Amino acid sequence: MSSLEGTAPLYSPEEAAALVSRLCEALLGVTPYAHIVNPNLEIPEASLPALQDALARLAAGEPLQYVLGYADFLGMRLRVTPDVLIPRPETEELCRRVIASYPSVSAASANPVLPRAILDLCCGSGCITWAMARAFPDALVVGVDLSAEALRVARSQNVAISTPYFLQADVLQVPELLQTLKAFLIEHGCAGFDLLLSNPPYVRESERTQMRRNVLDFEPEMALFVPDADPLRFYKASAEVFASELFAPSSFAAFELNEALGESTENIFKEKMCAVQLQKDIFEKNRFLFAKK
User: Fold this and answer.
1) Which secondary-structure segment (H or E) carries 119?
2) Which residues pair with 167 in a beta bridge?
3) Cβ 236 vs Cβ 213: under 8 Å
4) What angle do CA 134, 138, 141 make, to 5 degrees?
């Protein structure tokens, strides 16, 4: 499974084998070791067209999640299309850390302090939004994105929990965004948000050369890239939103970020008089930023 002739392979042999194994498991219902246990295993003839089509798409570089039409995220099976980014393990880890920072509803504390209203900016597929709605079913949860196509995907998720809300708005147009959010809160009888999350576009245009073709050719550019001249534009906008009256004192915010811009991102929130903490991912890179008013 490689890219166009004359270029480097898109996947290593190990990666290619793992992808084909996962594909067969999903389409044929066989375990990854089925061919070892049963060397005479035959693929049903009726399944061949779908399998051959899926293999051709993988060979062309299309990510497995788009071929299957779904991605697994924090125990949820979420629909994904080329209109949204494929949820990454780093984003899953961000959600895990946020959820773990709150006491459980079943904890010994008689009055656990849980978020009442949660905002997810640049929500894309809605993976963060739905994860928060699942973790905090009594909270008012809303995801915001500019892309109508992404919002259609986010709204279509079939997760058996309380349903979050999704709004179309430009995160970079802060005054208009604040008006939209204020009207939303009034409509739902809520005084304000107390938790903000975001995994915004943060890959600089100059970093394209470091990215694999299966990402560049298939995932939405508007959800990935920011100009080198203003790479922190979404964090600046988010900091303004977080500093606004829509977030009460002691509110909490969490972001995924470009590991090369950790300190610069940190300074944006320090300027808003926030207590800020950078946290490293499993590769020891500055990947997460947590802020408190």
Assistant:
1) strand 117-121
2) 144
3) no
4) 65
Residue 54, CB half-sphere, CA atoms under 13 Å: how many? 21
Domains along the chain with CATH numbers: 13-61 (no CATH), 84-292 (3.40.50.150)
d(CA 24, CA 98): 34
DSSP for residue 107: S
- The string of pLDDT tens digits covering residues 58-104 is 999 999 999 999 999 999 999 999 999 999 999 999 999 999 998 76
Tokens of 154: 């986010």
Whether 274 and 242 have beta carbons less than 8 Å apart is answered as yes
Run means of pLDDT, 10 residues per run, the chain, 293 residues = 44 84 84 64 78 92 96 96 97 96 62 87 98 95 98 93 93 98 97 97 96 93 97 98 96 97 97 95 95 95
Give Cβ neighbours of residue 136 (< 8 Å, ≥ 6 apart): 102, 114, 115, 118
Sole residue written with tokens 């949660």: 118
Helix (H, G, I), strand (E, B) or coil at 38: coil
